[in-house]
Design a protein that fits this description.
Elements (H helix, E strand, L loop, with lengths): L12 H17 L3 H14 L9 E3 L3 E3 L6 H8 L8 H9 L3 H5 L3 E3 L10 H8 L13 H11 L6 H18 L2 E9 L10 H15 L4 E9 L4 H13 L5 E5 L11 H9 L3 E6 L5 H11 L3 E4 L7 H9 L3 E4 L1 H6 L11 H6 L4 E3 L4 H4 L3 H10 L5 H10 L4
Parallel strand pairs: 3-4, 4-5, 5-6, 6-7, 7-8, 8-9, 9-10
Antiparallel strand pairs: 1-2
């Protein structure tokens, strides 16, 4: 797609991306945007770089020169989304498709599941088991649980195995350049030889300090929909009392039991100061997303992609600043989307919903956060500038 109104079909994408990156760099240091852009244009013409206009007239009478040939990038710049010291490098890394450079930029993973966030190579070295990720999409959560039960769970049996998985998860975070990681265990772990809720916390905290102390660790307590409410209430109680865990999540089969059943547990978590999250809208409907947000008073939704089917639900999410922590490759490999290019994250973003990019289970799906960003860029779902906005969404609550 050519830059609107000027360069026709002849704007060279390499040229426009290159000049765009120059503008981003200047914008970070110049208070007067008009003067900066005028100076840039003079310099580029002097160097013989600019052969024809490749910008679009906006705002105060100048041109944004060399904006990537996509209206969405122009809108992103107008919104002032390049707002941290790493934005320029992240955008440049994406346009060069440089995975190593993408990894060097701060990112978050706010949607993980214990040892399923582990680094494959580290696990292989420590255990001799090379857990190859899925290569063919599965048809259901039951299929995924069966696959994990066969290929992954046996490697992490017992308390020592689960702790190895957490160690490997912090190694993966460090390897991929994450600066924020939400990670924890199911509350029923205290029945599986992991000690008390406090002992479990300190075991994971020690691994965090030893392997990735520069990564902000957000301790999470998770609940499974498959467990009885009475059992969850009993197991959750000590997690709520400690003032150590920060978030609560609900995962598993969305249809295992009605969302109303979990309201008392979420009221207790809210009273304890937890940030409230739940898996919903991965397999269910937009109405399911609405009901979960309303009944559980959620701050965030894990997945939530079904909301894209309803403008009303998307408007509610945007108006209430509910963040959706989305996992594109997981959605693809579980048959929830036909392709990365067709992922509804684009529709959600355009509707003003705050979205982030995450892995779900990097050990299962084989895609790191950096891989996810690059896949969305390569598929043409977002411009580099828009992906930087999404990156920043995950670095602040």
């Amino acid at each position: 797609m050519a830059v609107d109104g000027l360069a026709g079909d002849h704007a060279h994408p390499t040229l426009t991306d290159a000049i765009f990156l120059d503008i981003v760099a200047l914008d970070a240091v110049e208070a007067d945007a008009d003067a900066a852009l005028e100076q840039l244009l003079v310099e580029e013409r002097a160097l013989g770089i600019v052969a024809e206009p490749v910008g679009r007239s906006i705002g105060h009478g100048g041109f944004i020169v060399g904006v990537p040939s996509d209206k969405r990038s122009i809108a992103a710049i107008q919104r002032g989304t390049m707002t941290d010291a790493h934005s320029y490098h992240f955008v440049e890394a994406l346009t060069r498709r440089d995975l190593t450079a993408i990894r060097a930029c701060p990112k978050s993973d706010l949607h993980t599941h214990g040892y399923l966030a582990a680094n494959r190579d580290f696990v292989n070295v420590r255990t001799g088991h090379d857990i190859a990720p899925l290569t063919v999409p599965l048809a259901s959560m039951d299929d995924m649980h069966a696959w994990v039960g066969t290929h992954v769970r046996p490697v992490f049996e017992g308390a020592a195995g689960r702790l190895l998985g957490f160690e490997a998860a912090f190694i993966q975070a460090r390897h991929d350049g994450l600066t924020r990681l939400e990670l924890g265990d199911d509350v029923w772990a205290i029945t599986r030889g992991m000690g008390t809720a406090e002992e479990l916390y300190h075991s994971i905290a020690e691994l965090h300090r030893a392997t990735a102390p520069d990564v902000e660790w957000i301790p999470q307590a998770s609940m499974s929909r498959h467990c009885t409410i009475a059992a969850l209430d009993n197991w959750l109680a000590p997690f709520l009392q400690l003032n150590l865990y920060k978030t609560i999540d609900l995962s598993g089969d969305e249809f295992a039991q009605p969302i109303e059943n979990f309201v008392p547990l979420y009221r207790k978590a809210a009273a304890a100061g937890f940030r409230l999250k739940a898996h919903v809208g991965e397999w269910g409907t937009a109405d399911d997303v609405w009901r979960a947000v309303e009944l559980l008073e959620l701050d965030e939704v894990q997945h939530g992609i079904a909301a894209a089917a309803s403008p009303v639900v998307m408007r509610m999410l945007a108006d209430h600043h509910i963040r959706l922590n989305i996992c594109p490759t997981s959605n693809l490999m579980l048959g929830r989307v036909e392709s990365i290019a067709a992922h509804p994250i684009r529709k959600l973003f355009d509707a003003g919903v705050r979205v982030t990019v995450n892995t779900d289970d990097v050990l299962v799906f084989g895609a790191s956060v950096s891989d996810e960003f690059l896949a969305l860029y390569d598929a043409g779902v977002f411009t580099a500038a828009e992906l930087d906005t999404i990156r920043l969404n995950g670095l602040r609550d």
